[in-house]
Amino acid sequence: MLSIAIAGCLRSILASSCVAKNNSLFISTLPGKTMLSYFADQLMNLNHLSTPSCTNVIKQLGLLRRPRYIHRSSRRKSLYSGTSPTIPTLWSATRAVASRSRHQSNVSHETSSLSVSMATPLRGLDGKRGVNFSLIRPLKRSLPSLSSKIELLNFQSLTNKSCLIHDHILDKCLDYMCITETWHQPDTFSSLNESCPPGYRYLQKACSTGRGGGLAVIYRCELELSLQPLPELSSFECLAFKSKHLSSVLFLLIYRPPKPNSSFILEISNLLATFCSSSADVIILGDMNIHVDIPSCRSATEFLQLLDCLNLKQLVVAPTHIRGHTLDLVITNSAPLKNLQVYDLGVSDHKVVSMELLSSVNPSKPKRYICFRNLKKINPVHLAADLQHLSTHFSSPDEAVEYYNSHLRSLLDHHAPIKSRAVTFTRSAPWFTDGLRRMKTAGRALKRRYKTSGLTVDRQIYRDHQNKYSKALKEARSKFFSNTIRNSPGNSKQLFSTVNHLLKLETSSPIGSSAEQCNLFMDFFTTKISLIRSALPGPLTQTAPLSFAFSQPLSCFPMVSSEEVQNIIKNMKSTTCALDPLPMSLPFEIL
User: Fold this and answer.
1) For residue 445, pLDDT beyond 80
2) Fewest CB atoms less than 10 Å from the CB: which of 165, 179, 310, 341?
3) In Å, how far are 251, 301, 313, 424 from 291, measured between CA atoms?
4) Is the distance from CB of 345 to CB of 374 less than 8 angstroms?
5) How far apart are CA 188 and CA 123, in angstroms?
6) How far is CA 140 from each of CA 104, 108, 344, 358, 590, rounded to the nearest angstrom?
7) What would the DSSP string read from start to end of 379-405?
8) According to the model, what pLDDT value does residue 92 have?
9) Is the pLDDT of residue 112 over 60?
């Protein structure tokens, strides 16, 4: 680098005050001084490629800048020749190749920033220009905080919108979906079952009287919510619950009807005072039907004063109703809520209130394990050879049954042992057609246009489209299951599976057989028959026992041939019971 500067200076000097004579260069100095003479070879030695010793000192002081990068395809690489009488300008297109550690760091991923001294030369391990990672000081970075996604919405009836909320929960990957005004009646859960995606459960409180009301919380199964006891309430509906992984946080989902009730302030003050004193963090969600955005509203003033006395804060400041009022509230004392947003889903007069709850615990999704036997890998020839070694001489039928049950199970474990593994089931919506997918894409485009323009006409177009999309989802789902039931008239397994999927029945764990359970089963029916007889009017008439006359008693049984046994087995159905020592498909393959 220093030779480049020296060569540039000499070139400018030679262009102005040099005279060539017999391959010699004469450089004039100040007047009255001796003229210096140099040959071309001597000047060329000054332009040597070796690095001067002072260069390292200049680099350490930070006085040398990095040369401008020149692409290799520019062909500006200099060729030096000892016979050339000229001093060429040094152009170099080559660049020292940095070590691998310059681009691929072995430093831990927890390193968030690098701190390198400016006075330290950036040299790699191989001496070339690069980064010396031994001089890098890693800085600790805190782990990313975990959070749960929560949304609140007054849906105004789930009857025709259950499929839409099902699709919305999966799209947003929600952990909690709090719904007010479900409008579902007691012992009627069809709309909630349709709204609940696979891998989710729900807590609910049906409408108390008439139309309107109803609460529901749809949550992930791994959160393990549990209901909390509540006092008798008459002015509003409430659902209190806690999560197993967030035991310090109490959730209250509230719906207050719009009709004024003088006992509301008293009841909610007693409720909040009880829970705020017993729980560290309280999160109150719901539709209060109180215009907290209007300072002159008397009910709003009383409610806000109550919150201030209990050290509670109302977080929603944007309008949550299409008419511009703030009715859906999020209230807490010290729960770490963030990213609170309000947006329109387009299917209700209320808007969605979305937020995130920070937590230090991430409930891990439980792994699902299945146990199975690979019956396809059983060699029928080897199994038949092992069956021939079984004994056929027994002293009693009970001994034969016990022997065959134990030995056949042992053979099955030998040829097809039980295996277990973790599995992941893909839960798709088979009724979701290409037409619905296009409608969903169009709805997102309309939502973006409405958010960009803010025009009322765009909002109305978006809401009309969302209502059509919700109805199309409902019709497609109903049509799919109707066709499934109609096309399976004799398939009992398919029919029961479809009904269980629609009703979402809880699967009970299988109960093992024992003598005590068999006796309980028998005593149940014996007691039931006795109760029925005691409830019948009038005395029971004693009937004489039936007598059968046999013309010829059975004294012996004819021997059965192996061909007859094979024919009997072949004519049997290939149905298998859990108590069978061998699946029925194996004897069919052997025979």
Assistant:
1) yes
2) 341
3) 22, 9, 16, 47
4) no
5) 74
6) 20, 10, 41, 21, 67
7) -HHHHHHHHTTS----SSHHHHHHHHH
8) 43
9) no
CA atoms within 13 A on the CB side of 269: 12
Token digits of residue 131: 């980064």
Task: Report the greatest alpha carbon distance in the chain.
Answer: 161
Tokens 């973790």, located at residue:
422
Q: Which residue has the tokens 């109903």?
A: 478
Strand ranges in 225-301 using DSSP code E only, listed in sequence order: 225-227, 237-243, 246-255, 281-287
One DSSP character per residue, 208-239 reads: SSSSS--EEEEEEGGG-EEE------SSSEEE
Spatial neighbors of 204 by CB under 8 A, at least 6 apart, are 182, 184, 189, 192, 214, 215, 216, 217, 239
Q: Rounded to whole angstroms, what are the CA distances from 560 to 27, 387, 486, 552, 557?
A: 130, 19, 46, 21, 9
Q: Distance (Å, rounded) from C-alpha 480 to C-alpha 181?
A: 28
**Would you say how long the chain is, in residues?**
591
Q: With a cut of 50, say whether residue 439 has pLDDT above it.
A: yes
Q: Among residues 271, 290, 293, 291, which one has the least CA distance to residue 282?
A: 271
Task: For residue 589, name the pLDDT band (cuts at 50, 70, 90).
Answer: confident
Single-letter amino acid code for the residue at 1: M
pLDDT of residue 546: 63
> Which residues pair with residue 93 across a beta bridge?
none
Report residue 385's pLDDT band, with 50, 70 and 90 as the boundaries: confident
Minimum mean pLDDT among 101-110, 123-132, 402-411, 501-510: which range? Answer: 101-110
**pLDDT higher than 80, residue 276:** yes
Taking the alpha carbons of 401, 407, 411, 412 in that order, is the dihedral positive or negative?
Answer: positive
Tell me the pairing of strands 176-180 and 313-314. Answer: unpaired
Grade residue 449 by pLDDT with cuts at 50, 70 and 90.
Answer: very high
CA 170 to chain CA centroid, Å, is: 9
The closest of 164, 155, 156 to 473, measured between CA atoms, is 164
**pLDDT tens digits for range 509-523:** 555 667 788 888 889
Q: Rounded to the nearest 5°, which phi and psi values hold at 65?
A: -90, 160
Q: What is the 3 state secondary structure string of 316-378?
A: CCCCCECCCCCCEEEEECCCCEEEEEEECCCCCCECEEEEEEEECCCCCCCCEEEEECCHHHC
Comparing CA positions, the residue from 292, 280, 270 lying closest to residue 250 is 280
